[in-house]
Amino acid sequence: MKNIRATLATVWRIAAPYFRSEDKWAGRALLAAVITIQLALVAIDVLVNQWQNRFFNALQDYNWEVFVREIGVFCVLASCAVVLAVYQLYLNQWLQIRWRRWLTRHYLGEWMHGANHYRMQLQGDAADNPDQRLADDVRLFVERTLDIGLSLLNSVVTLFSFVIILWGLSAVAPLHLFGQEYAIPGYLVWAALIYAVLGTALTQWIGSPLVRLDFKQQQFEADFRFNLVRARENSEQIALLQGEHAERLGLWARFHHVIENWYGIMSRTKRLTAFTASYSQAAVIFPYILVAPAFFEKKVQLGGLTQTASAFGSVQSALSIFVTIYRTLADWRAIVARLDGFEAAIASAAALEKSSESIGVVASQGGTAIDLRQLTLRLPNGTPLVSADGLSLRSGERTLLTGPSGSGKSTLFRAIAGIWPFGSGSIAIPAGASVMMLPQRPYFPIGSLHEVIAYPGEAKSFSADRVREALTLVGLPKLAERLPEQAHWNRMLSLGEQQRLGVARALLHAPQYLFLDEATASLDEPSEAALYDLLGAKLPQTTIVSIGHRSTLDAFHQRHVAMVRDGDRFTLREAVGVKPAPV
Fold this sequence. Notes:
By secondary structure, the chain is α/β, with parallel strands linked by helices.
């Protein structure tokens, strides 16, 4: 019961916000329509059950007129049922897509808010493969929740509707055992209840491991898919290293987990299906066995017999809903658990940003420099990495940051960007200042070259002529005529060309603070010098901070700050008048 309450509480937390959102009236109206149609379908089932009594009695009595009339009644009921079923499916699907659209937008917003997606990776949360959560689990959650909810509603309404009928039929067709008649009030209802309880208990005992197996199956499938994509994205490096054999072994090892877990699902599903199929088949004949003695004693007519069997089946099915949808419930619980984990991971990442024990990035009013105040950077495990206090990156000044590999230079940039939370102290950035980070390997979304260069802004923010001019300035004139072309530019361009494209992006956006994390390291020294001269000419007011290992970079910077080992961490020290040496 604790698991059921916890699952339902989680489902309510995930589902309820949509019905309180800006789309609430449409969602509520569609849900009300679907529920109303479901109730109408149950009412038709009750009418059909009563129709069976009249129809089969007419057959037994050879009453042609009643037979013909009941055929007409059935046609009307069947037509209504078909129309209602069609519109219930249509409205259900309409509700599904609106609900899924809102939930996907909500999760995308939370996941992509304030670098939560990055901090989730840093924390190593269990919410792996966000693509699966957003693409598959949201869709399945909406579908399964509606299907299971309507099934439960149908079972409850059917139970109350047919229990009354079955209770009355229990008096009309009393229990006969070994030639004796026993007047047990509502014995058919009690028989259906006992049958359903036994079936439910056995189903839970046989099928309970499926929840864990389904959860693991989705996890293994997503892990295998993710690594396939990763191999595709890094195919050049794999080919250069001739790593196909190692990749194949690694991918097969992950797929082996998929297979082994699937075998477990097969074994458990075989046992569950054997029981549920036997249970369902026995349910067909069981009411006839109970009522047949009364029929042969002529206590009840053929119509009463068939009506009783139908009503018993309806009550038994309603009580056995757990048995019927157990496989779906197991899959649904796994979906709910994954979305719950995704929400928890997002919340944890958001809390990490606001934690009193994290680095504070604040806006300074009237300031003209980025100030590091009592700053300590730590690794996610708490190990100290960098200490800095009183360092200012002054407006309009060019600063070169050097230090050994692993000393925390890129991590310092991440902290200034506000995405590295591990540590203490604060970073004050002038209010309203624009900051741009250019990493060694720039990121380009799949799209037109115009959109790629304008990223993260919109393509319409920069005219085609401005973009062509920027491409020409950075040494990529051949790309100037390919602005409308859609492509995966990270694959098509060399790393040097990608770095030139990153500089073109900086020229267009003209940030007040530009951080270059070895952003020209793949270029030859003359090309690198040309780009730095270009930045100086086109962005004279921009504060530039560079990470680099080449001694030639000193000529393009007015200031040199070095990472120096100080006990268990590195500290930032001015290297006044000292040219940076190669590391």
